[in-house]
């Protein structure tokens, strides 16, 4: 394990090959993630960003919005691709990831709407939509920096355990644990869609840089598996991130609570 201390954070490279930035809590995670995204955009104003939804990146987006307002970081040349969208939810459905992104990020930035992309969950032919989405990412030159959350079962995007590492953007059935975890965003548990369109594992892995975010005790078991289990296996989709050369995990104390300093 390589351990350096930088601005009060513990920054280490675990034997898994994943760089770990340990922060104290969710607020610090949000600031640190935003700081890295802002640095990328300032360095390359025409960056292609891969974005995630879920509870974890909400604070990060809040920090991006604050920075845009206070320091004027511009997103006029940025292009974004979100990881996923629920099948059956229209962009104007308040539970859709389109709506989430509008609410938490896009409407607060100066990014032109033609440059923000999510899969169309209402496409008549979802398979065609998947190919179209994949092609758009390719045409944009691929993703420079992909923001990722992680499911309690190790999913990334909506790629549930068992998904082949070679998969591209695809329609998937959600695991029951995922539907349960996401119930908090719906009034009625029955409303949680059963399927989603998600970037595939190969799509995500082609990103040049990856920022994986994990916060809270609920994520501790999966983070322990990710950082300490040796095997790269579709049973733990996130384990493939160990084979990527530029992955940074920003995790708070609770998410790292089962790992401790036992990384080597
Ligand atoms: O940040 P959360 O809400 O814990 O979700 C983790 C992951 O699960 C998903 O929300 C899908 O269930 C992903 O989009 C996200 O990256």
From TrEMBL:
<dbReference type="GO" id="GO:0006043">
    <property type="term" value="P:glucosamine catabolic process"/>
</dbReference>
<dbReference type="GO" id="GO:0019262">
    <property type="term" value="P:N-acetylneuraminate catabolic process"/>
</dbReference>
<keyword id="KW-0378">Hydrolase</keyword>
<dbReference type="GO" id="GO:0042802">
    <property type="term" value="F:identical protein binding"/>
</dbReference>
<dbReference type="Pfam" id="PF01182">
    <property type="entry name" value="Glucosamine_iso"/>
</dbReference>
<comment type="similarity">
    <text>Belongs to the glucosamine/galactosamine-6-phosphate isomerase family. NagB subfamily.</text>
</comment>
<feature type="active site" description="Proton acceptor; for enolization step">
    <location>
        <position position="84"/>
    </location>
</feature>
<dbReference type="InterPro" id="IPR006148">
    <property type="entry name" value="Glc/Gal-6P_isomerase"/>
</dbReference>
<comment type="function">
    <text>Catalyzes the reversible isomerization-deamination of glucosamine 6-phosphate (GlcN6P) to form fructose 6-phosphate (Fru6P) and ammonium ion.</text>
</comment>
<dbReference type="InterPro" id="IPR037171">
    <property type="entry name" value="NagB/RpiA_transferase-like"/>
</dbReference>
<protein>
    <recommendedName>
        <fullName>Glucosamine-6-phosphate deaminase</fullName>
        <ecNumber>3.5.99.6</ecNumber>
    </recommendedName>
</protein>
<feature type="active site" description="Proton acceptor; for ring-opening step">
    <location>
        <position position="155"/>
    </location>
</feature>
<feature type="active site" description="For ring-opening step">
    <location>
        <position position="153"/>
    </location>
</feature>
<dbReference type="GO" id="GO:0005737">
    <property type="term" value="C:cytoplasm"/>
</dbReference>
<feature type="domain" description="Glucosamine/galactosamine-6-phosphate isomerase">
    <location>
        <begin position="28"/>
        <end position="246"/>
    </location>
</feature>
<dbReference type="GO" id="GO:0006046">
    <property type="term" value="P:N-acetylglucosamine catabolic process"/>
</dbReference>
<dbReference type="GO" id="GO:0004342">
    <property type="term" value="F:glucosamine-6-phosphate deaminase activity"/>
</dbReference>
<comment type="pathway">
    <text>Amino-sugar metabolism; N-acetylneuraminate degradation; D-fructose 6-phosphate from N-acetylneuraminate: step 5/5.</text>
</comment>
<dbReference type="GO" id="GO:0005975">
    <property type="term" value="P:carbohydrate metabolic process"/>
</dbReference>
<dbReference type="InterPro" id="IPR004547">
    <property type="entry name" value="Glucosamine6P_isomerase"/>
</dbReference>
<keyword id="KW-0119">Carbohydrate metabolism</keyword>
<feature type="active site" description="For ring-opening step">
    <location>
        <position position="160"/>
    </location>
</feature>
<dbReference type="InterPro" id="IPR018321">
    <property type="entry name" value="Glucosamine6P_isomerase_CS"/>
</dbReference>
